[in-house]
């Protein structure tokens, strides 16, 4: 049974959704209170009436941004019939214009900025990467169990390589302002996945 959100919960969700692209594009340090009020149309008091501080907003936004990408991946994987097809979903989702429109990958953006400056955001980014790694390892091991992938494929190494290639490709694409560079890296991921096949 769906419970209707209270006014406070709706306002909190609105703040998260409205500021998500701002934090993802400008980062935690680069996002000011005036950015938050401009994105939401709310006063400082309204924002801090729903969140203790900017960090609390940023942490909620990180969860929102990563869930949006995870949901895109999960929807496409649900339509895939094989473990190979499920792994290939990553090459499509991370090349999706909707991801770029929201500032790219929240994990990459947060990890790069927060590694030495914000412990709470660093922990969130690390947890997201570990969860992502576990998901890919599960897919690769599933493919090994069904005979789609070679038995000697190292699931952990390949999972980390896929993540590193995706995040590196997104970063290179952003700094060079070239989606073609991302496509080249995604093509390399496809080759990697194809090499796992029997």
Automatic annotation (TrEMBL):
InterPro entries given in the database record: Homeodomain-like_sf (IPR009057), HTH_TetR (IPR001647), Tet_transcr_reg_TetR-rel_C_sf (IPR036271), TetR_C (IPR011075)
Top-rank taxon: Bacteria
Protein's UniProt keywords contain Nucleotide-binding: no
SUPFAM superfamilies: Homeodomain-like, Tetracyclin repressor-like, C-terminal domain
Protein name in the entry: TetR/AcrR family transcriptional regulator
Keywords assigned by UniProt, alphabetized: DNA-binding, Transcription, Transcription regulation
Xref: Pfam families: TetR_C_13, TetR_N
Species of origin: Mucilaginibacter calamicampi
DNA-binding region: 32-51
Ranges of residues in domain HTH tetR-type: 9-69
The keyword Cell cycle is annotated on this UniProt entry: no
């Amino acid at each position: 049974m769906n419970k209707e959100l209270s006014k406070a919960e709706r306002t909190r969700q609105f703040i998260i959704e409205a500021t998500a692209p701002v934090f993802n594009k400008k980062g935690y340090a680069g996002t000011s209170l005036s950015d938050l009020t401009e994105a939401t149309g709310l006063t400082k008091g309204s924002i801090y009436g729903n969140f203790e501080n900017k960090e609390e907003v940023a942490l909620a936004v990180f969860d929102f941004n990563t869930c949006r990408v995870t949901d895109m991946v999960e929807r496409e994987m649900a339509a895939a019939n094989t473990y190979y097809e499920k792994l290939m979903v990553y090459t499509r989702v991370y090349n999706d214009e909707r991801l770029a429109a929201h500032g790219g990958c929240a994990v990459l953006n947060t990890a790069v900025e927060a590694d030495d400056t914000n412990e709470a955001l660093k922990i969130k980014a690390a947890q997201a990467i570990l969860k992502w790694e576990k998901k890919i390892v599960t897919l690769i091991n599933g493919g090994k169990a069904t005979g789609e992938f070679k038995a000697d494929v190292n699931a952990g190494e390949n999972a980390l390589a896929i993540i590193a290639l995706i995040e590196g490709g997104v970063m290179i694409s952003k700094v060079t302002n070239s989606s073609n560079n991302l496509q080249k890296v995604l093509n390399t991921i496809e080759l990697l996945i194809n090499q796992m096949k029997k």
